[in-house]
Amino acid sequence: MANEEDDPIIQEIDVFLARSLLEKLYLFQYPIRPASMTYDDVTHLSAKIKPKQQKVELEMAIDTLNPNYCRSKGEQIALNVDGTCTDETSTYSSKLMDKQTFCSSQAASNVSRYAAAVYKKGELHLTPLHGILQLRPSFTYLDKADAKHREREAANEGGDSSQDEAEDDVKQITVRFSRPETEQARQRRVQSYEFLQKRQAEEHWVHLHYYGLKDSRSEHERQYLFSQGHGLAENTELIKSPSEYLMMLMPPSVEEENDKPMAPSNVLSMAQLRTLPLADQIKILMKNVKVMPFANLLSLLGSGTDPTAVLRCVQQVALLVQGNWVVKSDVLYPKDTSSPHSGVPAEVLCRGRDFVMWKFTQDRWVVRKEVAAVTKLCPEDVKDFLEHMSVARINKGWEFMLPYDEDFVKKHPDIVQRQQMLWMGIQAKLEKVYNLLKEHLTPKKQEAQSAHPLLVSGEQRVNMAKAKVKQNYGQLEKEFQKQKAEMKSNDSSAKTDVPNICIKEEPVSLEEPMDTSGQEGLTKGLLNGLHPTQGPLEPVNGHLPGGCMDRVTQELKAFVSATFKKQFVLTLSELKRLFNLHLASLPPGHTLFSGISDKMLQDMVLDTGCKQILVPFPPQTAASPDELKVYALWEAGDTYDQHRQVLLELFSKNYRVRRNVIQSQLSQECGEDLNKQEVDRVLK
Q1: pLDDT at 169
Q2: Is residue 571 a part of any domain in this protein?
Q3: Of 25, 227, 340, 503, which has the maximum CB count within 10 A?
C-alpha cells in the first residue's frame, strides 16, 4: 500500500482489441540501409510470399543517382552476373546493379505475446501480430554469376569435340538396388537438412502487389488497426479481472511439442530433465553418458535426491562394471531395431555388447580382434561397443575408461554381491551362445580375482617393493657366501699345487712379450663373471691392466678427432651423446668399454687441437652445465682456419652476433672481402 501511494496513477487509458487484421498483420524488420537507400526514395519493385513457411522476398530499387552510390562497382557486379550480352533473362537490364533483393527469416517462433499498438485520442488499440520477420540481403545473384561462368567454361571445352565422337562414346551403366528403408532410417531422412530444404523449395511463391506509404489503399488498410466498434459485443474478451487480462495479454511460453526443433540425441536440457520422474531422469542420463560413477550420477540429479531411490532405479537400466555403472544393452538397442552399420537385429547386438561388458568385469583391457572373433559381428559394431565404455591405447588394446570405484564397492557390498550374481547368469548365457570353454574362462577369472583391487595405492606399491627387495637381498647374500667359500677352496688348492709344478725355463726375446694370459687366468680367475676375451676390461684397484691404457687413449683420440673434423663445434652434452652412440655400435669386449669419465673425454678434446670457447650465455638460460661447455676445432688444416678462429673469438665475446658484424670482422682480420657463399660456408 505504501508503494502505491508513492506511485500515484496519473492517467487511465482505455484499451481496445482490434480484430480486423487478426492473423494478417506481420512486422518486418529491415536492416540498416546504406546512404544510397533511404526510407523516402526506396521503391519496392516486387514482393512474394510463401504463406506456410511465412517467408517473404522483396525486391527494392537502389537510387543509382545518389552521390554515395559507387557506379564502377555496380557496373562490375552487373557484368559478373549477366556477362556482356543482355536479354530477357538478365538480372540487371540496365547493365548496372540498380536493385537489391531481401529475403526473410523468422525472428521468433512464438509471437502470441506481441501486438501492434496505436494510440489515438486517449485510446490504445492493440492488434495481435501473426509473425515477425527479419529481412536480410539475398546474394543469389552471385550464384547466377558462378553458374554462367561454369556454362561458359563448359561451352569452351565442349567446342573442340565433334558430334561424331560424342555419339561413339559409350558409357558403362551400373545398376544398383537399394535395400528397403527402415522406419528409423526414414525418420532420420525426414529430419535431415536436405529433406527440409527440398520441402521448402516445393512450396510455390505467391506474388503480391506493393502499395506505398502514402497510397490511398494503404490509408484504408491502416484504419483496420483501430477497433471498429466500442460496444461490449466486440470487446467481451477485455471484460476480465486484471490478472486474467494480463494472462491473456502475456500468455506463458508454452510451445507445442510438434513445433519444437528436434534436439540432437546427445544434448539434454537439465531444466526439462528435472521435470521428469526419477526413473526417467536416470534412464536418459545413462543412455546419453553410457558409463558413470555413482557419485557423478547423484550430482547430476541435484541436491536432495534420495541415494536409496537412485540405487533402486539405476539397477533397472545399468549394470555394475569395476564399481561404475554402465547402461544396459537393451536400453541402447530396443526391441525391433537393427544396427545402422550391418542391419543386425537388436538381440544379436545386445549379446555382443554384453560380452564386451563381461570381459571388462574380468580385466581392464580388451582386445578388439578377440571380441570380433567371438561375436562374429562387423568391425563397426564392435567399435561402437568399445567406444561406449573404453578408450583405445596404441599397441595395448582398449582400456576401460574409468578407474575402479573402490569407494562405492566398500559402501554398498550388498549391491556388489547382487550384481555379481547377475553377471554369473549373463556369463552362463554367453557360454551357451558363443560356445565358450570353461578352461578358457577360469584362469582369467582367477587372475582377475588375484589382481583385485585393480587400483593399487602408492603406499601398497612401496610396501610390495620393500618386500621384494628383502627377498632378493636374502637370495643374493646366500649366493655371495657360497661363491666366497668356493673361491677360498680354489685358492687353498692352488697353493698346495704350486710347489709340485716344474717350470721349464726358456730364453725370452726382448721383441716379443711373453704370453701370460694363462697364468692371469689361474691367479685372477673370472673377471666379474666374464672371461677377459668376452667382457670389457675392468679397472683393478682403480687402474686399468698394463698396456690397456694406451689402447684406450688411441681409440678415444681417434673418435674425438673424427668427430670434430665433421662437426667442428660441439657442446659437452652433444659430445657425450655421440660417444654413447659410438659405444653402442662397437662389438662386445671393446677397449672403450673400460669406462671413460667426463674428465678423460674433456682432456682428450683439448689434446687433439681443440679449444674451449667461453661463450657468455645469459644468466637466465635454462641450459644444463654440460650444454654451456662449448669446444671447437681450432686448426683443421684447411683454408678456413683463420676465418674460423675469428668467428670463434667473436662468439667468445657475445653469444649472439649479427651477420654484418661477422662479415666486416672477417674482412678486416683476413684482409679480403668474402662473398655471401664463403661466409655461409664458414658459418655452417
Answers
A1: 57
A2: yes
A3: 227
